[in-house]
Specification:
It contains 13 helices and 20 strands. It is globular and about 65 Å long. The protein folds into two domains: 314 residues, Adenylosuccinate Synthetase, Chain A, domain 1, CATH 3.40.440.10; 96 residues, Orthogonal Bundle (Adenylosuccinate Synthetase, subunit A, domain 2), CATH 1.10.300. The longest helix is centred in the middle third of the chain and has 22 residues. The termini are close together. α3 packs across α4 and α3 runs parallel beside α6. The protein is an alpha/beta fold. The strands form five sheets. Strands 9-7-5-2-10-1-11-15-19-20 form a ten-stranded mixed beta sheet, sandwiched between helices. Strands 14, 16, 17 and 18 form a four-stranded mixed beta sheet that branches. A two-stranded antiparallel ribbon has the order 3-4.
């Protein structure tokens, strides 16, 4: 028995979906514990691509139970559309395969309207939000005025809560943000229809997961975004609105930390970032464009081009520490196939001083310059490798270098987008 948490080790978009899909083979339950549909996980099975935003990536496996924990914020429209697309592809034949915790907070139309209006009015102080209403929903959760799924499926409770909160939201939209107010009846009609479809998925994640663990089953916990976007430990305020690190798996599902056995951090062989915020190894040049095109670095949720840069060991060491990582899964190694040399950032230079630890202060981080070590590229196609021994010596040496500079062992290497283009060095479930 083992319970494994998957986390993004960078600024998100590291390829968590593929890794979760692979590890689902060994798990009984797959659990999403934070975030919302601002995250997109891309999966390639055979030649078919599937993009998921809310439903755990394990849903592509028959007989696996997928659970959305209380730490997630749920857009009912997006969720139901995702279910419909999966069913049309022949997945999710049994609705009992999918459970949504009653304590998930619901993304309402005013959350999205406020999110978009705030970003529009921010000028050069934009955060880079996706405009999906994630942040405002978490605000209402913390402010104790949110609407949860358990409220939504009870018409009288839903109507009462909406009646209490909507006047304040409309005042903000109309008087401060200069946007049109929203209709209470229109929201009641739309979301009442969603409630009828959602009720069959309602359950208690904490009870289900703890029972599964006590019965000796394997549980895989799936995070969204990345460690450096954590609301407490990331590059605040250029972060998401939830706890993206491994500790979020406990608060976002209702399990105790003693049940977590392994924490696997997913990291690209280079780095990308979407949205605003400091990015010490960013490449605003031809090499940056080369990585973007070779890696197809465009957001699966937004389509936005991602910022690209060399591997940042300083930032990765921060993620290793805050998550208690036991292993690294390195993705998109194949994107580096054609490079003569590859750079790895091993420290930061701050006004002549060498820093080995990631600065917690944003202004300090903005002034940091990367200190690089250069390693030899492998100049060959590695997409068919099924073991580290099959890799060119330079590629194997690159992995060793990443282990050395991060202090964390590599347990998986992705050499292409398909399931079979994966090297499993060590299985965290074994």
């Amino acid at each position: 028995m083992a319970n494994v948490v998957i986390v993004g080790a960078q600024w998100g978009d590291e390829g968590k979906g593929k890794v979760v899909d692979i590890y689902t083979e060994y798990a009984n339950d797959v659990v999403r514990y934070q975030g919302g549909n601002n995250a997109g996980h891309t999966l390639v099975v055979g030649n078919e691509k599937t993009i998921l935003h809310l439903i755990p990536s394990g849903i592509l496996h028959e007989g696996k139970r997928c659970i959305i924990g209380n730490g997630v914020v749920l857009d009912p429209k997006v969720f139901l559309e995702e279910i419909d697309k999966l069913k049309k592809k022949g997945y999710l034949k049994d609705d009992s395969q999918l459970v949504v915790d009653g304590n998930v907070h619901i993304i309402m139309p005013y959350h999205k309207a406020i999110d978009i209006a705030r970003e529009k009015s921010s000028g050069d102080r934009k955060i880079g939000t996706t405009g999906r209403g994630i942040g405002p929903t978490y605000e209402d959760k913390i402010g104790r005025r949110g609407i949860r799924l358990s409220d939504l499926v009870r018409p009288q409770a839903f109507a009462r809560k909406l009646r209490e909160v909507l006047p304040e939201k409309n005042f903000l939209l109309e008087k401060f943000l200069g946007e049109a107010p929203l209709s209470e009846q229109a929201i009641l009609d739309e979301y009442g229809a969603y409630a009828l479809q959602l009720e069959k998925y309602l359950g208690c994640a904490s009870e289900i997961i703890n029972t599964s663990i006590n019965e000796g089953h394997n549980v895989l916990f799936e995070g969204a975004q990345g460690s450096l976007l954590d609301v407490d430990h990331g590059t605040y305020p250029y972060v998401t609105s939830s706890s993206t690190i491994a500790g979020g798996a406990c608060t976002g599902t209702g399990i105790g930390p003693r049940f977590i056995d392994e924490v696997i951090g997913i990291s690209k062989a280079y780095v990308t970032r979407v949205g605003e915020g400091p990015f010490p190894t960013e490449l605003n040049d031809e090499m940056g464009d080369r990585l973007r095109q070779a890696g197809q670095e465009f957001g699966s949720t937004t389509g936005r081009p991602r910022r690209t840069g060399w591997f940042d060991a300083v930032a990765l060491r921060e993620a290793v520490r805050t998550n208690g990582m036991t292993g690294l899964a390195i993705t998109k190694m194949d994107v580096l196939n054609d490079l003569e040399t590859i750079k790895v950032c091993t420290g930061y230079s701050l006004r002549g001083e060498l820093l080995e630890n990631f600065p917690r202060d944003l202004e300090t981080l903005k002034d940091c310059k990367p200190v690089y070590e250069e390693v030899e590229g492998w100049k060959s196609d590695i997409s068919g490798a099924t073991s580290v021994e099959m890799l060119p010596p330079q590629a194997a040496a690159y992995l060793k270098k990443l282990e050395e500079v991060t202090g964390c062992p590599v347990v998986l290497v992705s050499v292409g987008p398909r399931r079979d283009q994966t090297i499993q060095v060590k299985n965290p479930f074994s």
